[in-house]
Design brief:
Helices cover 30% and strands 34% of the residues. The protein is built from 3 helices and 7 strands, in the order ααβββββαββ. The mean pLDDT is 85.
């Protein structure tokens, strides 16, 4: 356990440059967190892929319920309050249904047996570049 005298000694050991570096790193992390939070708010549409092909591109601002035919049968997808969820699917475990709603760019719902994937898109952020 740190005693008060040890903590005071640590503060006195730090130079002005160390304190400036700590403040810069703290500021950078706060600004990065705010920027990432704003990027996630810009979800505009969802893309529904059936058997590996992008089949539908739907706006999140328009509430609707739609039926999508997959490999096993019909899945029911709901768009409401700028979020998407799978209401029903013919798959045996229904993991996609129990996942709930998604609303941030990059989030996905995947029904592997029925071969349907729903992903949220918005302002694209580049994670990595490959050649």
């Amino acid at each position: 356990m740190w005693k008060k005298s040890r903590l005071c000694d640590l503060v006195h050991i730090l130079t002005v440059g160390d304190k400036i570096l700590i403040l810069c790193l703290l500021s950078l992390s706060i600004v990065s967190g705010i920027a990432l939070k704003r990027a996630h708010k810009e979800a505009k549409y969802c893309i529904i892929s059936v058997q590996g092909r992008d089949t539908y591109k739907l706006l999140l601002s328009e509430s609707q319920v739609m039926k999508v035919m997959g490999a096993l049968g019909e899945s029911i997808i709901e768009i409401k309050d700028k979020s998407v969820r799978m209401l029903d699917s013919p798959c045996p475990l229904k993991i996609c249904v129990h996942q709930g709603e998604i609303k941030s760019p990059g989030e996905t719902i995947i029904c592997v047996p029925n071969r349907i994937m729903i992903r949220i898109a918005g302002k694209e952020l580049v994670d990595a570049v490959t050649w």
